[in-house]
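Notebook entry, structure prediction.
Reason for the run: the old model in the group folder had no record of what sequence produced it. Starting over properly, with the input documented here first.
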Amino acid sequence: MSDSVFFIVELEVNQGQTDDLRRVMEEMTNLTQTDEPGTLNYEWFLSDDGRACHIYERYANPAAALVHNKTFPKDLFERSQAFRPIRLTAYGNVTAEIREKRIDPLSRAIPGIRVAVLGNGGGFMR
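New structure, fully documented this time:
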């Protein structure tokens, strides 16, 4: 089994706000790539109509997943009203510290967000 931690974050994008979302996502991608060496993937995907965005984050280990908390701009949600996180799914070695420092604060800060945590079940990784 891998020590990796994965997240998929689903965003609902407000009508006509796709350009603002793109700016925010480009900023986040640049910060993550520059300041988080333990981040293996940070990719985002946009629906054809621009109303849904999914972010795929994969970290080498739980410690690397926690670094994102330090990189993430504290005022991001205040600066951008273009989107609303609606679901967070966490996979893999999701430790109590990740729940306490990443998942729980997000679920308290965003009313109505759906959260699911799935631990390692089996399989392989190449």
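Summary: The chain has four helices and five strands.
The old model has been moved to the deprecated folder.
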